[in-house]
Each structure stands twice: as C-alpha cells, then as structure tokens.
Amino acid sequence: MPDIRFPNNFIWGAATASYQIEGAHAEDGKGESIWDHFSHIPGKITSNDNGDIACDHYHRYEEDVKIMKDLGLKYYRFSISWSRIFPDGKGSPNQKGIDFYKRLTNLLLENGIKPAITLYHWDLPQQLQYRGGWGNRDTADYFEQYAGYIFNQLGEYVPMWITHNEPHISSIISYWDGRHAPGYTDFPLALRACHHLLLSHGKAVQLYRSLGYKGEIGITLDLNPMYPASDTDKDKKATIRADGYENRWFADPVLKGKYPEDMVKWYESRTTLPEIKPGDMETISTPIDFLGINHYMPHTIKHDPSVWPANYAKLLTGRPLTNMDWEIYPEGSYDLLTRLHRDYNGIKLIITENGAAFTDIVNRKGEVDDDNRLDYLYGYLQQMNRAIKDGVNLAGYFVWSLMDNFEWGHGYSKRFGIVYIDFKTRQRIIKKSGHWYANVIKNNGFDLV
Ligand code: IFM
After folding, report:
1. pLDDT of the residue at 428
2. N or C: which end of the chain has fewer CB within 10 A?
3. How far is ligand 1, taken at its centre, from the CA of residue 168, in Å?
C-alpha cells in the first residue's frame, strides 16, 4: 500500500479547454469567439500568438485519447467551444461542430475514460459580444439554450458537467482588469457580467435537473487562500476584503444564495451594483452536486488604498515561484480545502485544476525531465490528501494540464502540461511528471521520498 493513499473511487483526471488546445479556429462551420477576436489584435498576446492551430487537438484527438489511455486517466475534463456549436451564439446548431464532440466522447468512453465537460471556458461567440457579451442579461438565456442543446446531445453519456470555468476571470479579469477577452476596464460592467454568468449557471443547473439525466453538475471557481502580510489591523481587514473580492463574491451566491454583505457594503459607496431581479439569487443557488476548485497559489495581502476598488495589493514573500511567478505553497491547498469544507457545509469538492508552468527542455534522449513540476504535484497532492484525512469531502483531482497549450495572454510561452507539445511539429512527449502521475493513478497514491 502506498504511503499516501486516496479513497477508493477517487476521480483522477487531467484538464484542458477548447480554445487552448483545439485549433481549427475557422473550420467546419465554427464561428468566431471572443478569444479568436482578441488574440488577433496586435499587442494583446505575448509574441502575438493565437489559438488558430494551438495543439491541433481538433485533428489529433485520437492520438491524444491514446495518450490519456497510456496515462491511465479515469476522467478527462475538456470544454466545448460554444461557437463551434452555435456559430452566432444562438439559432441553428452546426452539425459538424457537435459531431466533433460526439466523436471525442465516444472515443473516450470506448477507452474507459469518463468525460467531464465544461460548458464555458471563456470562448464566448463574438456575435454575442457584439450584443454586449456577459454585460447583457440575454446572454444568460442564450447560454441556457446552448446548454440545453448540449445536454440533449451528450447528456446520456457524460457523468460530470461543469457549467462555468472561473467566472471571476470571465467577469473581473475580462471586463475590469482588461487582460482577457473582451478586454474591457469597466468595473460596474464587470459586476454585471459576473451576475449574468452566475445566473446562467443557475439556469443551466435547473435545466439539467429538469431533463432527468443521471450525471452530476457543478461549477468551477478559482479559489486561493489569502494571508495577511502583517499583523496590523489594516492588513488583516484587507485580507478579508481580498477574500471577498476574489473568492466569496463567487462562492457565496452559488452556495449561500447571497452576495457577501461586507462586500456589498464596501461597493455600495464606491460603485454601481448590478440589478438583481426577484428570483435571481434562488436560481443562482440551485443546489449543485459538487464545487469544482481551480487552485494554484497562495496570496499574501497588504492594505493599499491606491488600488481601486478593494484597496489591497498582493506581495511575494520569497517562496519558490513557478514560471508564472506564482508562489509554491502546498500547505495553502490544505488551508483552502479545510476552510471551504467548514464554510460551505461540507459540500463535495473536486480539484478541477492544479498544476504549474515551468520551462521545459527536451533532452538528447528526447525526454522531458520536469522534476520541478513533479515536485509541485507531489507537494500539493500530499496536502490535499491530508485534508481528506481531516474530513474534507474531496472526491477528485484534475491536473492542469494534460498538455502544453495556449496560455491566454502569455501565448505559448508558459508550459503547464504533463505532456510536452512541440509547437512546430505538434509532436507530443509524455513528461517525467506525466509518467509519475500515471503511477499515482495506478496505485491510487504514492510513496513518500
Ligand atoms: O490555463 C488556465 C486555465 O485556462 C484556467 N485556469 C488557470 C490556468 C493556468 O493559468
């Protein structure tokens, strides 16, 4: 028996997202998405990279499923490109688009790999952006229609559904911070986008329930633990605010049916809050089967009145960094999981993303010895296992990512994969961390070294 052992039936998987891997950006009737649009604006992406070809997964999915099988994955988390299905975001579906996901789903199932589908991983159809994107409440209805079509096509075969990936990124970072598509810098609009994203989540969950499928449905939030930079009252209060701004603003509506009161109060005198119609919060908090968590790093928070709107800044504390300059602190994952368990009623949790970017080099033997990534996974999995032992209901883990891919504003300069991609030849090489992870899955755990 391995030193670190996970519960029976633990979900072991790897994750990707449509725009980051598929390529075939204008093929077989696919419509333009906001990321197709944004990445083609000069200066938005490192080296002006884009996802036109990416990992070419659209054409190489058979090879990729074979790799998943070699790794022994139990689950594969991927997202659907909305504009591949509805090129204009609504209206008539594109048969060739849905056929691709049917072929992929079938092949996964034939190979004993369960599909976990994310409906929205940030690639909104550009035609809907022209109508206001997530700032427009109607987008929540279009999302519900899109979700309904996908449920009807794939619902019978897919055991795990995730409505949205990281609404914090697709609202705040995309509509206020401006780093992600559509690249706006309007805070009240970002809060509106957030409300409509959460509303569309609730609508999709209700619809899924009404259709009677047997799978499970949840949402994925990017959640990180926050620690004060000092013992001062100001830093401690700023830490609570940072937690409200990035974590609770998303988790509380879904799991408690209300936006956090401290943050509502904070915003009231500083900005315009979104209109909440009767019934919205009930829809948003429709019970889910699990909470997906994407977790990568801790944040250390300092009060900083010059940073609007929440008056805090993040500090680096000298801990080792990944290639994204994200601090490595596995104990943070223990703190986060135990805290979520405590604050949200012991809800079932699934890590839907965790992993690290490092500079990888193919050696003369044609191998990638990414010991740094392996160490990262080793440390984080150990702490997550500790949380399970302490009673946290953690049911699964998906490594980010199955393969190196288009890392949004960073283009191809950041590699997160356990499988290396040569972006010239599109050759795939399982990295040392991938071989290690395959053994973890096989043994349902690992030995301490
Ligand atoms: O690549 C992203 C992914 O799309 C969403 N979560 C974080 C990852 C690393 O930045």
Report:
1. 98
2. C
3. 12
Q: Are 381 and 4 in contact (CB under 8 A)?
A: yes
Ligand 1 binding pocket mutation candidate from 120, 376, 407, 410 (most atoms within 8 A of CB): 407
**How many whole angstroms separate alpha carbon 354 and alpha carbon 375?**
13
pLDDT at res. 163: 99
Q: How many domains does the chain have?
A: 1
Phi, psi of 68, deg, nearest 5: -60, -40
Q: How far apart are CA 388 and CA 378, in angstroms?
A: 15
Over residues 348-399, the pLDDT tens digits come to 999 999 999 999 999 999 999 999 999 999 999 999 999 999 999 999 999 9
Closest C-alpha to ligand 1, atom 2: 407
Q: Are 80 and 155 in contact (CB under 8 A)?
A: no
Q: What is the DSSP string of 317-342?
A: -S--B-TTSPBP-THHHHHHHHHHHH
- Cα(20)–Cα(404) distance, integer angstroms: 9
pTM above 0.85, yes or no: yes
Contact 185, 266 (CB under 8 A): no
Phi, psi of 134 (to 5 degrees): -75, -10
Q: Is 294 in the pocket of ligand 1 (CB under 6 A)?
A: yes
pLDDT of 344: 98
Amino acid at 285: S
How far is 338 from 390, CA to CA, in rounded Å? 8
Phi then psi dihedrals of residue 298, to 5 deg: -95, 160
The CB density around residue 96, as the number of other CB atoms within 10 Å, is 13
Q: Is 83 in the pocket of ligand 1 (CB under 6 A)?
A: no
Q: Which atom of ligand 1 is nearest to the CA of 405?
A: 1
Closest CA to 160 of 205, 116, 120, 118: 116
Ligand 1 centroid to residue 407 C-alpha, Å: 7
Q: How far apart are CA 363 and CA 374, in angstroms?
A: 17
Q: Are 349 and 290 in contact (CB under 8 A)?
A: yes
Environment class of 228 (CB within 10 Å of its CB; exposed 0-12, middle 13-18, buried 19+): buried
Q: How far is the CA of 92 from the centre of ligand 1 (A)?
A: 30
Q: Is 17 in the pocket of ligand 1 (CB under 6 A)?
A: yes
Q: In this structure, is the dihedral angle defined by the CA atoms of residues 125, 130, 135 and 139, taken in order, positive or negative?
A: negative
Residue identified by tokens 């986060």 is 336
CATH of the domain at 234: 3.20.20.80
Amino acid present at 39: S
Please indicate whether residue 407, judged by its CB atom, sits closer than 6 Å to ligand 1: yes
Question: Which tokens belong to 375?
Answer: 């160490």
